Amino acid sequence: MRKKTCPVRIKAAGEQDGTEDGVFEAIVAAYNLDSVGDKIVPGAFADTLAEWKASGDPIPVLWSHMSHDPDYHIGYVEDAEERDEGLWVRARIDLDEPKASKVYKLLKGRRVRQFSFAYDIQEGGWIEKTDGEDGSDGYYELRKLKLYEVGPTLIGANQETELLTVKNPPADTPPRPAPEARPSVKAGRTLSAKNETALRDALAKIAESTDAIETVLSSLDSGDEDKSTGPASTPPAPSAEAPSTAASSALLRASLALLDAESQPLTA
């Protein structure tokens, strides 16, 4: 899942702008060339907006993509459509929630003036520059996008967004590939079925090896006890640095559990 942010001008936020208290309007994606070399094509959101409408579910409004914290799920989109300037939304903030209410106050005070949206590319391609076009070497055209969420953020990328608009990649965004290598679709942060199967097969083999090791260690312990002939032949105390059979087994199984946990699918 990718993210874009852009500086915006709030079109309306609250009763002083002619909307209900807790409601704002913004352009959250613009059609101009942005600072990372992308250009959204008008109509890129048509299918995804239709899918959201058909589902009956609202598009979430998040503060700065913080999906991991329920407190930052600050509202929902009541209406959305593509306009000449870009993707327009009207959204309602949960004013009964402290963090959501704080964000709304920042919006009304114009102290936060940028928006962002999370998306995947379903169709796209590199466009070579022609005379008279923006972009030094060309740009990546975003033709069809899948929208996941929108929301205000402090830092953005497209200077044409307004509160009506937004865009800018986060600091940890990886370098963009060369034009010929740029993918048309961005995969989510999940293990492929093939890789997950291979990892689980490896875990199963490690588990079998662990059982075999436990058997060998147990037999060695039993053999040492059989060799003891009486009080005079007291076995040496085990070294503090040498783990017992039980400790070795516990360590191996803890490592397996950790590997298994790390093999679970990740969410973006």
% residues in beta strands: 25-35%
How many separate helices? Answer: 4
Which spans of ≥5 residues are poorly predicted at pLDDT below 50? 164-191
CATH architecture of the domain at 2-166, by name, is Alpha-Beta Barrel
Task: Give an overview in words.
The structure is a single chain. Helix 3 (193-226) packs antiparallel against helix 4. With 268 residues, this protein is α+β, with helices and mostly antiparallel strands. The chain has helices spanning 46-55, 98-108, 193-226, 245-262, and strands at residues 2-7, 12-13, 23-30, 38-40, 60-62, 73-82, 86-93, 114-128, 138-153. It is built from 4 helices and 9 strands, in the order E-E-E-E-H-E-E-E-H-E-E-H-H. The protein has a domain at 2-166: Serine Protease, Human Cytomegalovirus Protease, Chain A.
Question: Topology of this structure?
Answer:
Blueprint (H helix, E strand, L loop, with lengths): L1 E6 L4 E2 L9 E8 L7 E3 L5 H10 L4 E3 L10 E10 L3 E8 L4 H11 L5 E15 L9 E16 L39 H34 L18 H18 L6
Parallel strand pairs: 4-9
Antiparallel strand pairs: 1-8, 2-3, 3-7, 5-6, 6-7, 8-9
